[in-house]
Amino acid sequence: MPLLPVVKVIMENLQKVENNIRMFPVDPVPTTTQESLFIEHNKVLRNEHQFTYQNVNGLNHPGINQLERIKMSFESGLLDEVKYVLNLLIVLSNNNPSKINLKTDYTFLIDYLLKYLNEEKIEIDTKIDCLLIIRNLIQDVDNCQILSFNLQLRETILSFLNIYNNSIEHLNFFENDQFKELIKYALDVIENVSSYLSPVSKDDLIFNKLIEIFKINNDKNTSVTILRSISRYLYGSNSTKDASVLIDDEFINKTLGFLLLAINNNSIDDEIILTSLDFFIQYLSIKEENLSKLIDDKSRKLILEKILPILMIYKQNYKTEFNTQNLNYLRLYKRVLETNDFNTVILNIQDYPATFRELNSLKEPQRATAWLRCCFKPNKIGSITQIELWRAYEQQFDKKNLLPAVEFIKNVQYAFPQSKAKVIQLPNNEGRKFVIEGIEPRIEIVSLEKGKNDALVNYNNELTNASSQFYKPNLGRTEQVEIEKFNYGFNDYLKLNDINVSTCLLIKEILKYPDGVAMLTKYKFQFVENCIYVPDLLNHIYDDIIDCKMSFNLPASLAKIRVPRIHHTWANTYQCYPQHYFQPSTKEEIRELVVNARKLNKKIMVVGSGHSPSDLTMIANPVNEWLVNLDRFNKFLSEKPSKDGLYTDVTAEAGMRVYQLNELLEQKGLALQSLGSISEQSLAGIISTGTHGSSQYHGLVSSQIVNLKLINGLGEEVNCNSKENPEIFKAACLSLGKIGLITEVTIRAVPKFQLRSVQEVINIDTLIEKFDSIWTSDEFIRVWWFPYTKKCILWRASKSDEPISEPRQSWYGTTLGRLFYESLLYVCVKFFPRFTPYVESFVFSRQYGLVETFNKNGDVAVQKSVDGLNMDCLFHQYVDEWACPLTNGPDVIRLLSQSIEEGRKNKEYFVHSPIEIRCSNTTLPPHNEDEQDLSGRKPIDKGPIFGNTLRPFLDNTPKLNYLPIEQVTNSQLTLYINATIYRPFDYPTDYKKWFHIFEEIMNAADGKPHWAKNFDDSICTKEQMEKWFGEDLNSWRKVRKETDPDGVFLSGAQWLKRNGLVEPEYLEDSKNESTVE
């Protein structure tokens, strides 16, 4: 259609608008309306209901249907009728465009609409109505297909775009709202049909016109529509149809500029940012030359490099250590304390009448002891002069018969067992000063009960002045205070928005080309950091940014065993993001891994199921540390039965999971002698972390090991057992993954057996009263303690050949019960912690009832050994487990019970149930395993058949004297207690307060922590580790140096340094150490 006649008609219409001259047609009233009005306005007929009216105009004649009315209105050519139908079609097409199907009933419609769009004398409002109807109809897929191939429609739209492009010559027309509306609908039509016309050739007139309009347009919504249309036109472009050559620098610059709007995280321009990203994704997907054109300009390249990391986390409200807590800064430990570091004011007990009356009711020396504990607290770096202490006591009880001064001072050490009287020689011969070291005045008076509890637990290191808490006595050299780590797993609830996802897709397109890899490689760690901040990014881009093409080239043999994966603990308490995660399936691949790691100065972290809740297996540097998982190295190798048939030595690759071995042994009529609480670990894992069961006869699972093979840090295979390389064997049986990579395990199995168990409800007081006899009452014993109910579940089992009988179904073992329990815990930990005791009591009563059944009518079951020894760990959790002499158990349980009740009373902390209490016998006979006397033994007899009799260097259990099983008493047994705090639905529950108190009590009971659990480094310091393990730790270090002189297996330097397993200078020499969690 010629352009000038259209312009002429539109200008005439504009003149009419300006003169306010416009004709409004009178719409004819429908016959149905006439009938109702006739009756309504006729008073006589309205009230005469006895008459029946006939032959009234329109009565019982609805007229023609809607479709025929529309068709006849268009055929009539009457402008009023046409306008009426257009208004009707606007409503219909807007409400349900699929009802107006251009393929069936309304095939005629498009011709009429285009006719009035192209009619010169038709006013612009009618044209707008016609184009609006087309715009609405095109929202339906079938209609869109029909209209996309209508050449006349495309020519009409092109004529409107030409007017827009020449708007500078018709400024008053360009500023008109009607014309803007017309162009908006035209562009909407193009946006929808463009998907059916791709790929478009560079000669396409509409495509060319869109590019021209985009460059001169200043309207955001118009730019969004044009960008979408161009992106769809470019889809599927190839060498014969490649319109992307028309995209020039001006177009690219303007589109790239829209991405800069993302610098403001509160921007309201998300739509145009997203559309610009989608355009660049499509543009770069066509050919490599488009990327070269995009980044040839230095400014554009710089913008792209800087904006992509921002867009990856755009509008993500993630938490970091910098926006959730006070900003950490570097501190050095203090060598000397200041005067104001201590509280020197002794409070007057008379200001606390209730406590004062309670003290006065006591006789000496009990009153003096109680007064000291109420007014003072243990502090290993605190001190007070004896004269000052005596005068305070004398003044506060001046009307009472007091202890003599000498007796009073002697009594201080009774009140605080770890305090001591000391004489200090003053300088310059100025005399002597008599002091009591190890106590400090309290800031607030406490009750007699709390004072007693505080005096019996281990020293605290707290100073009154919070700013001076960073003091370390006997400091040899300057040392930096460790900064508290932040767990980025807290952000795992975040979900990506559309802009984040499109940014990931754009980065993928850029990385397809060498120039893109070269451009983004230097920003790799910024991308990884974003993945740490927003873990959901890992599902979209982690494989690409960590892929080999963004790092050094791995040997082909290693590249094929590399798998894209993040590593996290089973409970999601920690996670790390290694650059390389390997899963070898042969011994040759393992050896090559170690050799290449040594050659390239990399570290190896061996990981299994991740069931340990601590950061033991977390790497410190994602580039220089490789994770190796042996899940594919899991074949069963051999079995060697003994001559008497009492045991069979079975050999398997170390990556086999324990439950897989259990299934194979079951088929062969065999079973492991003892197990831990779960069987998800690998064979190498249960050995390396000191896994144990709960039995008066059995110790660590490693005591069942006959032989190990491992690849050391030199890439050599080493065979070790109690006779060959026994020192390496003792180090490897609790290696923590630092001695080498265990490849083969030979373990001593026995004929399979059932366990007949009795499960009873027992009061906590009964447990303490019967403590000495319970743990030697059967071969396998464990206790689950529910402190808020004052009750426990006692489980005892012995070997049996009775037929299987399943135990009672657990209430929270069902899907519904489990979900309900976890939901209750979630509400407690997040909103109402004080309800925790009630929830725990409710769950216990639902499962077990509240009546003690000890030695009465407990639940009896006969199960396969593995089913009886394993248990349900319920939910993700933090776990802190310690071992101490079993004879200290009653005192430990009393103190724990008092602490739990105090935490509940003061609402400081709440604990979760059950607290698991187990025992083991880690004493070993003085002879080797070949000298065991098995004469007369039957398959279901009690006691172990040792695979070896060597104690691992890092065994955390007490060193006790061995006695044959028939002579075992509590003095040979080790008590294990674990504190558990659940993470319902992975909520980051606070556990540190409770765990710290738990560890103070266990430490005071001569306990040591389990290596793989969440123990607190404020108590388990490297100095304390040296004290606990002494020469055994030095022996372990010596073996580690000999087997791995280059430190290939010294990954996770932070954990090693914190716990003193490796000399600090050895870790300081390791290269490129950094922290990424």
TrEMBL record:
PROSITE patterns: FAD_PCMH (PS51387), OX2_COVAL_FAD (PS00862), RFX_DBD (PS51526). GO terms for cellular component: mitochondrial membrane. Residues 574-752 form the FAD-binding PCMH-type domain. Residues 368-443 form the RFX-type winged-helix domain. Pfam families: ALO, FAD_binding_4. Its cofactor is FAD. Keywords: FAD, Flavoprotein, Mitochondrion, Oxidoreductase. Pathway: Cofactor biosynthesis; D-erythroascorbate biosynthesis; dehydro-D-arabinono-1,4-lactone from D-arabinose: step 2/2. GO terms for molecular function: D-arabinono-1,4-lactone oxidase activity; DNA binding; FAD binding. It catalyses: D-arabinono-1,4-lactone + O2 = dehydro-D-arabinono-1,4-lactone + H2O2 + H(+). It is found in: Mitochondrion membrane. The keyword Mitochondrion applies. Its EC number is 1.1.3.37. Belongs to the oxygen-dependent FAD-linked oxidoreductase family. PANTHER family: D-ARABINONO-1,4-LACTONE OXIDASE, L-GULONOLACTONE OXIDASE. This is D-arabinono-1,4-lactone oxidase.
